[in-house]
Amino acid sequence: MSREPRTGIATVCLSGTLDDKLRAAAAAGFDGVEIFEPDLVASPLPPGEVRLRCADLGLSIDLYQPFRDLDSTDPDRFAANLRRAERKFDLMEELGADTILVCSSVADDAVADLDRLAEQLHTLGERAGARGLRIAYEALAWGKEVSTYDRSWEAVRRADHPALGLCLDSFHILSRGSDPAAIADIPGDKLFFLQLADAPHLSMDVLQWSRHHRLFPGQGAFDLPGFLAPVLAAGYAGPLSLEVFNDVFRQADPDRAAIDAHRSLLALTEATSPVAQPAPEVRGPAFVELSAGDSLAPVLSALGFARTGIHRTKPVERWEQGTARILVNRSGGPAAVAALAVESADPAAAARRAVRLDAKRLPREHGPAEADLAAVTAPDGTALFFCRNGNDDWTGDFVPTGESADGIGITGIDHIGLAQPFDHFDEAALFYRTVLGLEPAATGEFAAPFGLVRSRAVADPHRRIRLALTVSLLRRGEWAPGVSEPQYIALAVDDILTATQGARAAGAPLLAIPDNYYADLDARLNLPADRLAAYRDLGVLHERTPEGDYLQTCTEVLGGRVFLALVQRLGNHDGYGWSDAPVRMAAHRRRRIARAHVPA
What we know:
Elements: E1 7-10, H1 18-28, E2 32-36, H2 37-41, H3 47-57, E3 60-67, H4 75-95, E4 99-103, H5 114-129, E5 134-138, H6 149-159, E6 164-169, H7 170-174, E7 191-196, H8 206-213, H9 224-233, E8 240-242, H10 254-272, E9 282-291, H11 297-302, E10 306-311, E11 316-321, E12 324-329, E13 336-344, H12 347-356, E14 360-361, E15 374-377, E16 383-388, E17 398-400, E18 410-419, H13 425-436, E19 439-448, E20 451-459, E21 466-472, E22 487-493, H14 496-505, H15 515-525, H16 529-538, E23 541-545, E24 548-554, E25 562-571, H17 581-596
Parallel strand pairs: 1-2, 1-8, 2-3, 3-4, 4-5, 5-6, 6-7, 7-8, 9-12, 13-16, 18-21, 22-25
Antiparallel strand pairs: 9-13, 10-11, 10-17, 11-12, 14-15, 15-16, 18-22, 19-20, 20-21, 23-24, 24-25
Helix pairs in contact: 1-3, 1-10, 3-4, 4-5, 5-6, 9-10, 10-13
Protein name: 3-dehydroshikimate dehydratase
Pathway: Aromatic compound metabolism; 3,4-dihydroxybenzoate biosynthesis
Function: Catalyzes the conversion of 3-dehydroshikimate to protocatechuate (3,4-dihydroxybenzoate), a common intermediate of quinate and shikimate degradation pathways.
């Protein structure tokens, strides 16, 4: 693209009143809005005041929508629909909006004959054109007679009116499996408006899919760069606008959702720009920082880590084994993953790009001899640092202790697990994907003791950075000692049995796994008896897929939220042990109850 496109968002995407939505859209950096009619109907602001409010906020009103069920085989009904349209034109003039979205009809009296439909669209175009307004005709995926973009284009082409053009909606096109390539052949001046939405692949009624499960670009499974390319090739010059119906977004903080939405469009624009620079390559985690008070140091020691440094000015310790580096911030507070540092080919450029993608730059205080690492804040509050590949200047911030340890065979950090609040799950996945240049690695769901858990992993192509994100779909009450958004660090080992034996001998608080699990494991995998006995003795979990095996042992929850895991991958296993997660979660609960002396 030779220019930065204008960005827009439909008010239906956000929670709150119309005024809340407009304020949030402007604060997030959008250029314009689509006014969703029910939002205007519920607002006490007259259309003229909405126009002034948008102007004060720097927002254009790009579209008024939707106008439903225009065409009709009943002449009287069609005449009534034209009268209804005239009233909407009056309203648009007060709003200062020049384009209205007209959906294909879902009514029983919808017109099937394309020539007759074109005639009725031409009539509406005449009335709109006489008032300096435009009609953007859209094919609903569930339209009675017009449900595909090529049929809607044929109707518009036959109608042949300058005030009549198309609205293309990525959901309606991609949910039907239509090929968008032919959009490139439609004259650009007939593409009046573009609405963008992503979605997961679901097997369900398309109307329910549309009304409840749309997502912002980059959060679902649709190929939106592939969809957008022919639209731009056709010469479309209007805004890139979002129309996302999603039950979670419409209940979430509108300011936060609007930033997430804006980030999604920036990332999509970058993905389709021939001159965009990709995210600088990440090579692996430089360190993970945990805020853990005094609860973590004894466990790290039992896991074979050495405390190799103490920060010069902060209550932070550096613990190392293999390439795994964990910083322990002993300033107090609940245990949590406070920061993740990644090795980047260009840290300064990575941080600048993150800010362009609406990440918040992290202000930091550092001494004159301390490293000034580029950093931003992730939506979940985690600090994200960028370090230059192979450059350990930041280690100079620590006074060496001279301590060393033999270790138990930990070679590095396999991945980091971050649970998210329900409202922020899709936002977190988009943030880590776009800011770090990661790709979707795995998705899944599992039935945990406390309800269904949804999981999504993102990783770099070489699997040097892996993040496993999870969310509980519903969590109510505290009927057992709870863990709010649990987090963990999975530590890679080459031999799970040797590493776990070493950890247990040193007093690491490892989870006990029930015999029922091993009886089932024996039935499923038919492991050698001595290996199964070792698993049972040490609490090893074993997941097998056609690609390979994933072996893990876990500590109990430390400081109320964080645990550590030892992980061995065999073959080409690319998962995260989610099939065994319910067993691990139940074991964690039993341990919490025992520690709290709460009756089970």
